[in-house]
């Protein structure tokens, strides 16, 4: 029944931002970490040449560590256009969002496959999109969602690869690729399953889990030329919120177009959404477009006061992105909605149980782009309401950090790429506070100057790509060619 129901569903071509595509209750879930492909492509590329890449299904184990041999259909897409016998397989994990054919049709990974005569497979992550081991997302049904299960999925897929073109590993070399959370998974696959995984390409992976991740906000501030004006308005806003004068608070919410948010903390949380998105997904403007960061900062100087400018910027943002604030920023909304295909809910569970990654306000005297009401309680508070009182709080991140090595991870044949301006970099192997890394024949570490989150994975674009990005992409290709062709590297 499960299979039949899934087979009739089709992939919908999405040209709009994720907010529109999937109006979620929890903004941090999708918008802040997800490697959101809608941000990466200008135009829909789902049906190239009018011919859709077929959706395929793999019988995956529900529980890799239990006694049951039950399976569920896991969705994947394949592109073998560039494949030549003996070439590698790039296993592209789309991470915490629905998979789509785009992953194998366009983007830098497809170019990498072309340059190395490889095959590209993108395997949907369990609990996202159509790949669900459970009938709904009730609290008890979340129990098969963990990093260990997700890694075991990829291992089992490699071992039983439903790809007639190729031989099994290690005769065929498998390279695991991913960005953001899936960038972690790529490196961890090489760590946990070295006999199955030849190499990994880990883009913008926040490999260290952390509860109080105030450094994200510091990185956002560093990137915005108007950060001092923003910080001043945030102090003003907090002053009004501290005052507890309901009329004044209501007026403030109204000025920002956020009067539908009853909770003070939800209002405070909503204010940071725009600038965080701007910095995390920043792309240089096309020739006759305006620079998104400059346009945002302009609001703070072209209004009567910076606060009025901030309010206008927020109202315009909600309007142009068609964001329903009550739906998007109400943190407790949807706590009891167990419908499948809510990436936000699934990712929230992963943060509540393993990663945290809570983006909190830096404490004074650090400059803060967000209100002090955006604290740990704002972020982690809803965890138990969503998934049950048994959840450990704070999130026991040490468990994950110890198991996979966090930013001290030590495994060979991984190409790590990060963006200089990516607010997640401070949890990566290239964080300024991580142990210093040196390139070797076996590992590469690159920070792309001025790049945002996962920028390297985008489809190359002659108009906006800059020299350092082009150089590093070329190094990635050359390194994989070298590793794949090196006769000294046993299969
Ligand atoms: C494979 O990738 C190429 C682009 O490199 C694209 O034109 C083609 O449509 C893709 N094929 C499939 C089956 O997705
Ligand atoms: C929030 O405010 C709206 C009116 O703006 C009201 O209808 C609703 O009941 C309130 N919700 C809560 C939880 O207080
Ligand atoms: C510049 O913008 C105009 C419309 O404002 C458009 O017609 C033109 O194609 C754009 N040029 C480029 C190079 O994007
Ligand atoms: C301020 O700048 C923004 C961004 O360029 C623009 O959209 C807005 O219309 C300007 N507002 C005023 C009052 O000039
Ligand atoms: C539950 O979430 C789904 C997916 O976001 C949504 O379509 C549905 O309307 C929600 N149900 C309720 C009762 O809110």
UniProtKB/TrEMBL annotation:
Superkingdom assignment: Eukaryota
UniProt signal peptide: 1-21
Pfam family, one: Peptidase_S28
Keyword annotations of the record: Glycoprotein, Hydrolase, Protease, Signal
GO molecular function, one term: serine-type exopeptidase activity
Biological process according to GO: proteolysis
Keyword Ribosomal protein: no
Keyword S-adenosyl-L-methionine in record: no
PANTHER family: PROTEASE S28 PRO-X CARBOXYPEPTIDASE-RELATED, SERINE PROTEASE 16
Family indicated by similarity: Belongs to the peptidase S28 family.
Protein name per the record: Peptidase S28
